[in-house]
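[Meeting: bench + compute handoff]

Bench side (C.D.) handed over the final construct sequence. Compute side (W.E.) agreed to return the predicted structure before the next meeting so the bench team could plan truncations. Sequence as handed over:
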Amino acid sequence: MYTTNLVSPQPEAFISVKKNRVKLYENKNHYLKSKTNFEIELFNPTSNDVLAKIWLNNKLISASGIIVKAGQRVYLERYLDTPEKFQFNTYEVDDVAETQAARNTNGLVKVSFFREKMINNLWLSSGTTYTQFPSSTLTYTTNTAGIDCFPNIVGGLPVGTITTTAFNSKSVITDSVASVETGRVGKGKKSNQDFKQAKGDFEDWSWSSFEYQLLPESLKPLETKDIRAYCGECGIRIRKSSWKFCPNCGEAL
C-alpha cells in the first residue's frame, strides 16, 4: 500500500545579489559588505496570483504591494514608491545596551504574502483599484519582468518636534566604550525597473511570511575553511590538513 503526502505549495522569498542567492546562516542571517545592492527574490509556485508586502528595517516600505502572478519569479531590486535600489550600508555604534534595540531591527527584511480572495469558490474577476494617487504624479509603465504594483495610498505624516536638554558637560564622566558594526537597508542609485498599475482583491491576513536579517560581514561567524594554521617552529602557513611535517623546516605537525 502506498501513501502520498500532498503539501500545498506556498510562495517564497529569498535575498539575492545579482540574481544569485546569498548564503543563509543560522538564525536566518545574511552577511553583506557595505554599499551592497541586493534583490528580494519572490517566487509564486501556486496556480493563483498572490500579493507581496515588504518591510525593511522592520518598517513597511509602502502601502503598495507587488502582485506575483501564478508561476512567476520576480527579482525586486527597488523601492515601490521611488525608483532607488535596495542598498545595505554599515556603520559603527557603541556596543552598549542602549543601542541593542536599534541594532535588533537594523537590516531586518520581512516579506508577507496574501492570497487573492474567493467568494463561493469562484475567483473574483475584478477587484478594488487603488487610484488615489494623482495620475500626474506617477507614471506606470510595463516592465519586462512583468511586475504589477498597486499605487501607493498617500497619507500625511505628522511632523514631530525635536527638543534638546542642556547639561553641564563637566559633570559627565565617560569611559571608553567598545564599538560594534551594524547596518541598515537604505536607498542606492536609481533603478530602471518599472511597474504597471494593477487591480485585485486580496485577503487581509497573510498566508505565509519570510524574515531575514542583513548583517555586516565583520560579524560573520568563522568557518573551518576560514581558519589558517601555521607551523609553530618557522611560522610558514600549513596549506593542507594532510601534512604530517612542515615542508619548510621539517617540524612535526
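W.E. noted at the follow-up: Confidence is low (pLDDT under 50) at residues 121-146, 150-174. C.D. will use this when planning the next construct.
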